[in-house]
């Protein structure tokens, strides 16, 4: 017996995509506008690593709780609450007066947004059958990337507005609440296993009971070697870190303004969009030519291509923001290949009833990529690990400038030199020096 197409599945996919957009936009709001947040609240670069890591760490704990609540009561209700009413914490974050308040409100906000990815991924599996699931995933992530590519540079322009980052947080919080209302009014849950032909002759209640997560099923998933390797590869892959800290990196290391540096988000978003669209046909081609090794080879090639683009694109001063944007677009393109490759790999090595459940730890582990943000928050602006010259203490220090100063990071040295040059220009009557778009 075969299961027919779920009615209204593409409309429901578009509505669910809004939940994923909120998650991505909120994460990008802090990373993209951190230079002005840092100036507004008097923060150090370490604060970005703490904010990013805290939001992902809390997601590791709250995402399973949201999934449990969704399976226990209502997936629709949990999504409407976690991506709707929870938006009030985004509005509260916009009123933060210091780092502690921002950290608390932003972390609480992230705790709610953690519900979107695992629940929506599970619902997509219920909306689409095997032959259309890859296309649906590619269109979902591609649409999100396209939206991000448009909103990213626009969001960066908030840096030129007084307290622009606050308006951004208020806006995304309000959007959160509107989206929750839309999900509650217009979304209908298809039910667990609605698109799986193996479960087509089973009623909805029995399908839901069959799909309940148990310790035995969890242990069985962890005994699949391919699945474990995919989990480990997420921790070792740094592409999310590079794109998360990209704008701050360009501001601190190469002297671009936040508005100019945010331009790289446009080609990056387009690159992810193109990569998502290509991932489906590329995945199908790889499986046809080598059912056993095709997907693995494509995934490995994408990882190596990203490493090469990141090395060349970040470790050399290309001068023009458009050249930096080209490299960020290339990095994003190969990153965009991942969803259409690793998700079919998970579905191929797990039983039909467990395939979507197998994607949950993959999503949680993906958040683990961001946990590494605690240390990269300190280290990304340093291009390389070569020895650094000792910088003498500046006049006017409280200790009289007599205490030895530890070796500063290269970014601090460059910032100090730029500040000195700026003061010299102003004393000479010259206008402020800004790195322009070119």
TrEMBL record:
Keywords: Cell membrane, Membrane, Transmembrane, Transmembrane helix. It comes from the Bacteria. Residues 414-425 have a biased composition (Basic and acidic residues). Pfam families: MFS_1. The keyword Cell membrane applies. GO terms for molecular function: transmembrane transporter activity. Residues 12-438 form the Major facilitator superfamily (MFS) profile domain. PROSITE patterns: MFS. Residues 427-438 have a biased composition (Low complexity). It is a multi-pass membrane protein. GO terms for cellular component: plasma membrane. The chain crosses the membrane at residues 47-70, 77-97, 103-124, 136-155, 167-187, 227-251, 263-282, 294-313, 319-337. It is found in: Cell membrane. InterPro entries: MFS, MFS_dom, MFS_Efflux_Transporters, MFS_trans_sf. This is MFS transporter. It comes from Bailinhaonella thermotolerans.
């Amino acid at each position: 017996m075969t299961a027919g197409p779920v009615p209204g599945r593409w409309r429901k996919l578009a509505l669910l995509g809004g939940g994923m957009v909120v998650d991505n936009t909120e994460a990008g709001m802090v990373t993209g506008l951190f230079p002005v947040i840092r100036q507004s609240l008097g923060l150090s670069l370490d604060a970005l690593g703490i904010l990013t890591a805290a939001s992902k760490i809390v997601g590791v704990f709250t995402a399973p709780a949201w999934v449990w609540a969704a399976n226990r009561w209502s997936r629709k209700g949990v999504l409407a609450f976690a991506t709707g009413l929870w938006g009030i914490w985004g509005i509260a974050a916009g009123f933060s007066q210091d780092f502690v308040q921002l950290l608390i409100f932003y972390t609480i906000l992230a705790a709610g947004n953690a519900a979107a990815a695992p629940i929506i991924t599970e619902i997509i599996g219920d909306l689409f059958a095997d032959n259309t699931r890859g296309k649906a995933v590619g269109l979902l992530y591609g649409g999100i990337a396209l939206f991000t590519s448009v909103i990213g540079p626009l969001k960066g322009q908030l840096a030129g507005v007084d307290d622009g980052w606050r308006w951004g947080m208020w806006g995304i919080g309000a959007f959160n609440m509107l989206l929750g209302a839309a999900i509650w009014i217009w979304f209908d849950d298809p039910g667990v296993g609605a698109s799986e032909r193996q479960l087509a002759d089973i009623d909805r209640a029995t399908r839901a009971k069959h799909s309940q997560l148990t310790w035995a099923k969890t242990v069985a998933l962890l005994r699949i070697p391919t699945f474990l390797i995919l989990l480990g590869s997420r921790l070792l892959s740094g592409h999310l870190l590079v794109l998360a800290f990209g704008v701050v990196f360009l501001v601190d290391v190469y002297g671009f303004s936040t508005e100019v540096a945010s331009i790289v988000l446009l080609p990056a978003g387009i690159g992810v969009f193109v990569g998502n669209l290509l991932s489906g046909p590329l995945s199908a081609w790889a499986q046809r030519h080598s059912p056993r090794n095709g997907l693995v080879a494509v995934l490995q090639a994408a990882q190596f291509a990203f490493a090469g683009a990141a090395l060349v694109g970040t470790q050399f001063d290309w001068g023009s923001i458009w050249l930096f944007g080209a490299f960020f677009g290339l990095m994003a393109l190969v990153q965009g290949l991942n969803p259409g490759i690793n998700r079919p790999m998970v579905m191929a090595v797990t039983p039909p009833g467990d395939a979507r459940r197998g994607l949950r730890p993959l999503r949680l582990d993906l958040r683990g990529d961001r946990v590494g943000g605690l240390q990269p928050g300190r280290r990304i602006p340093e291009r390389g690990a070569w020895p650094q010259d000792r910088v003498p203490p500046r006049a006017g220090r409280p200790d009289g400038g007599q205490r030895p100063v530890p070796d500063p990071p290269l970014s601090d040295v460059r910032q100090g030199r730029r500040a000195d040059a700026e003061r010299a220009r102003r004393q000479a009557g010259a206008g402020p020096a800004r790195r322009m778009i070119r």
